[in-house]
Amino acid sequence: MRATVVTKGEFQVRDLPTPVPGSGQVLIEVTRCGICGSDLHARVHCDELADLASATGYNHFMRSEQSVVLGHEFSGEIVDYGPGCRKRWRIGTPVVALPILRHGREPHLTGLSVAAPGGYAEQVVVQESMTFPVPNGLSAELAALTEPMAVAWHAVRKGRIGKKQTAFVIGCGPIGLAVISMLKAAGVRTVVASDFSPRRRELAARCGADVVVDPGTESPWDAAPHKSRITGATDILNLGFDAMDKFRRIPNLPWWYLFRAAHALNQGPNTPVIFECVGVPGILDQILTAAPPMSRVVVVGVCMQTDQIHPATAINKEIELRFVLGYDPGEFRDTLHMIADGKVDPSPLITGTVGLDGIDTAFATLASPDHHAKILIDPRSPKTAP
């Protein structure tokens, strides 16, 4: 099969042996594969990423001297089964799969491990238990976006945002756009999106953002149509006074149960949920400084450098920080069906397609935010530029 291999940051199209699925694994023909931001990082910073992964307990991340086939956002069709499979679907069935393989008890991230070649190729091996048939005749292009959209769905779920709360999405690259789409699919009524790039702001509006802001000229916090009533520490303290004044008027009311119930049900003032989708040093501290008190900040952007925040600011404002990574198999499956059922439309993210010979050009193009969001790879296309 033909595949694009990266070694020491350089791409090369090669003829590789046809992959052989192991026990419980499936061979699929790749129809489309998305280029992810983590692929851009892995191409030139994989040793850094490998050290970080090793420090957190995963020891199989790719290294720069290895020859690796990238690509973990793919759709395809079943070609063959390995031993020990249940053979749930016919040959030729369109499928998507979680990008993870297991050799024995050792998991490997597909497209980010030399032991699990990815979707920048004509064929890829997946785990049968982690594979899902594509429903409703969904196109290969949209099916390939299941993986990045599942990342966004996981972030939205972790944010535990209510429909009446305001969502702020800071950064409208591919993951920010996916988060906007999933927020609207979840029924969130007000989404404020912020990005310096005019092109990304345009795409944010197409993904459903209700307010789109250039942070160079306007504060996203000021642009929200519904301002938080909690603007400082005094407001937080007065919440307690106001609540107790009301509760004490009712004789024999066990008011402390109401506080316990509010905590158990995650109920409180209608404060915003903020999704940080930039991932550069300094942005998190800027958010903590500017965000309304009692906000929840969901960190989706991956900052690879050492960063600095002022914890006392977050403490005084009782801001909650949540960090997210990936998704679970249920979220992946639900995302696929949300796309197939028309509950979310990720098509605005797709801005170009290339073949295997065009991957190097596509990576160079994606270094600028002014033109493209998500470029897909069609392994059989002759296109060399998106």
From TrEMBL:
<comment type="similarity">
    <text>Belongs to the zinc-containing alcohol dehydrogenase family.</text>
</comment>
<dbReference type="InterPro" id="IPR013149">
    <property type="entry name" value="ADH-like_C"/>
</dbReference>
<feature type="domain" description="Enoyl reductase (ER)">
    <location>
        <begin position="9"/>
        <end position="377"/>
    </location>
</feature>
<dbReference type="Pfam" id="PF00107">
    <property type="entry name" value="ADH_zinc_N"/>
</dbReference>
<keyword id="KW-0862">Zinc</keyword>
<dbReference type="InterPro" id="IPR011032">
    <property type="entry name" value="GroES-like_sf"/>
</dbReference>
<dbReference type="GO" id="GO:0016491">
    <property type="term" value="F:oxidoreductase activity"/>
</dbReference>
<dbReference type="InterPro" id="IPR002328">
    <property type="entry name" value="ADH_Zn_CS"/>
</dbReference>
<protein>
    <submittedName>
        <fullName>Zinc-binding dehydrogenase</fullName>
    </submittedName>
</protein>
<dbReference type="Pfam" id="PF08240">
    <property type="entry name" value="ADH_N"/>
</dbReference>
<dbReference type="InterPro" id="IPR013154">
    <property type="entry name" value="ADH-like_N"/>
</dbReference>
<dbReference type="GO" id="GO:0008270">
    <property type="term" value="F:zinc ion binding"/>
</dbReference>
<keyword id="KW-0479">Metal-binding</keyword>
<dbReference type="InterPro" id="IPR020843">
    <property type="entry name" value="ER"/>
</dbReference>
<keyword id="KW-0560">Oxidoreductase</keyword>
<dbReference type="InterPro" id="IPR036291">
    <property type="entry name" value="NAD(P)-bd_dom_sf"/>
</dbReference>
